[in-house]
Amino acid sequence: MTPAKIEKFVIVLLIAIAIFFIFLRFIHLKADFPSSITWSSALYTDEGWYSSGAISYVLSGNWYRKGDFNPAINMPLFHLIQFVVFSLLGKSLFSARITGVFFFILLTILATLLAYRYVDKKGAFFTAFFLSINYILFSYSRLSLLEITMVSFVLLSLFTVSSFRGSNDFLVITVSSLILFLAQLVKATAFFAIPLLIYISLMRSERWRKKFLFTLTILSSFFISTVFYNIYVRSIYPEDFSYFKTINVDERMLTDGFSVCKNFYQSLLAGRLIEPFIYIIVMIICFIAFLSSEEFRRNKIVILSLLWIASYSGVLAFSKYHPPRYFLPLAVPIAFLFGIVISFIWRKSSRKYAIFVSLLVVVYLLFFDGYKIVKYITNPHYSFFNMSKEINKIVLKENSSDERMILMGDFADSIALTANVYPINAKVGTKQLNWKIRKYSPQYFVSLGKDASTLGLLSKSCKVKKIGEWNVFDNYYFGRKVLLYRLSK
Questions:
Q1: What would you measure as the largest C-alpha separation in the chain, in angstroms?
Q2: Which of 73, 105, 325, 350 is the residue whose CA sits 20 to 30 A from 5?
Q3: CA distance 483 to 27
Q4: In a shared domain, residues 146 and 263
Q5: Both 294 and 409 in a single domain?
Q6: Which is nearest to 305 in space by CA: 204, 206, 199, 179?
Q7: At what angle do helices 331-348 and 93-118 cross, to 10 degrees?
Q8: Domain total for the chain?
């Protein structure tokens, strides 16, 4: 086989592998998240919390829950997307999670097209290969979380501003800025991409006056949209708006300079959480190439990737809270650099050596990441889904009336994706627990382990009886079981 045919074979192989591992994301979509990846309780809470507006609307015709946690006010877009999905497919854990899979596919397509624009075909397809086969990304892309959707909108913004050449520059840049604003309506940290959008927009002209006006257009479009939206929702829901800001910004904000610098350094190294060995090797090669090759230093996607890592790490540096999923946006620049390094090797070394390195990398990722994915998919567990189904059966069995029962608990929203119960949060929300108990009179309470303080308050207004317990996610959060209580007068 000639080197040219081998090169073509490598590209076809990359495409086939990427499609295969993207397809696997649809298999056993209701299965538990793999163990040993995260310590965060997001596996219990966040899938429900950030679809709660859609869940509530489907259940009651009203997305807003007075006194409860209403993240749809500050970050509405994902709730709106889920409402559309639930309207088409019905409310379920599967339909919630399939949204995440489709946005991952969009992310992969946009990242590949962006890499193809600034690198070459091989670099683009290696980018797609990395994103599709990475075990961490595979696992998180099967959940209904915000990070992957946010990054999809960020990439759509960058792709838009880089693609429509010859069009009205200011119109394209304004549209791209508004798409980035939409990304912020998915998750607030999307503003990290403002420097990226400015950088790509500056490529549209050689004139400094236009560069200045492009930058001004981006900043004004983004910030005016943000300010007007915040003023609008704050005028209608002042208590909810301020509460969300308090728990997600004020209580997590770092102001100590040393801690911020330490966080920034740790965030720069966080790529090793995505793909440890590949990240280290790629960054070493990038460092050497950056010092020795002007072509590499001037490559637009190299600069974009390094700017992405620095900007996003800068945002994370000011936060005290860093669950593993927060580092998912770093996977895209790592994938870009991975593709660039492979492309650079093809151009700067012999074809035989480039083919050898390419096949070696493919085999390595297939063996380490691909094997984990296949092992996980062929041995699924359904502890959370089964627990939710059993709670639904208990509620239906105990209540013959058409009245929908109210389930109180930190992860009641996530259970409500499967069970026909109306969820109310126990610990987060604008009103205290006593107020919620009086307002909603919940019939059931669910907790991770025995929540003595909440049970104490509940016992003052109703009879509390434990009626179920489950081992969920192998109890890897300190061995605590999920407990269900009946609340009666």
A1: 80
A2: 105
A3: 29
A4: yes
A5: no
A6: 199
A7: 30
A8: 2
Asked whether the beta carbons of 92 and 273 are under 8 A apart, the reply is no
In terms of Cα–Cα distance, which of 18, 89, 94, 81 is closest to 53?
81
Q: Which residue has the tokens 């041995």?
A: 379
Task: Give the residue from 197, 283, 184 showing the smallest Cα distance to 230.
Answer: 184
CA 312 to chain centre: 14
DSSP E strands, 337-481: 406-408, 422-424, 444-448, 463-470
pLDDT per residue over 16-72, tens digit each?
Answer: 999 999 999 999 999 999 887 877 766 778 899 999 999 999 999 999 999 999 999
The last residue of a domain, from among 349, 377, 405? 377
Distance between CA atoms of 387 and 184, rounded to whole angstroms?
34
User: Does any domain span residue 44?
Assistant: no
Query: Residues 279, 409: one domain?
Result: no
Contacts of 398 by beta carbon, 8 Å cutoff, 6+ apart: 486
Complete edge-to-edge strand list for the sheet that includes strand 482-488? 422-424, 406-408, 444-448, 482-488, 463-470
Helix (H, G, I), strand (E, B) or coil at 430: coil
In a domain, 48, yes or no: no
- 294 and 412 part of one domain: no
d(CA 176, CA 153): 10
Q: What is the pLDDT of residues 118-128, one digit of tens each?
A: 888 889 999 99
Task: Determine whether 248 is exposed, middle or buried from the number of CB atoms within 10 Å of its CB (0-12, 13-18, 19+).
Answer: middle
pLDDT per residue over 389-445, tens digit each?
999 999 988 887 667 899 999 999 999 999 999 999 998 999 999 999 999 999 999
**pLDDT score, position 478:** 62
Instruction: Give 118's contacts (C-beta < 8 A, 6+ positions apart).
Output: 162, 299, 300, 301, 304
Residue 103's domain comprises 3-31+73-377
Non-local (6+) Cβ contacts of 482 within 8 A are 387, 446, 447, 448, 469, 470, 471, 472
pTM (predicted TM-score): 0.94
Say whether both 260 and 182 belong to one domain: yes
Helices (H), 119-254: 121-133, 135-140, 147-163, 169-186, 194-202, 208-236, 238-245
Minimal CA–CA distance to 119: which of 275, 292, 296? 296
Cα Rg of the chain (Å, integer)? 24
Q: Are residues 148 and 269 part of one domain?
A: yes
290 and 185 together in one domain: yes
Write out 231-290 in H/E/C secondary structure: HHHHHHCHHHHHHHHHHHHHCCECCCHHHHHHHHHHHHCCHHHHCHHHHHHHHHHHHHHH
451 token code pair:
């929540």
CA distance 265 to 287: 17
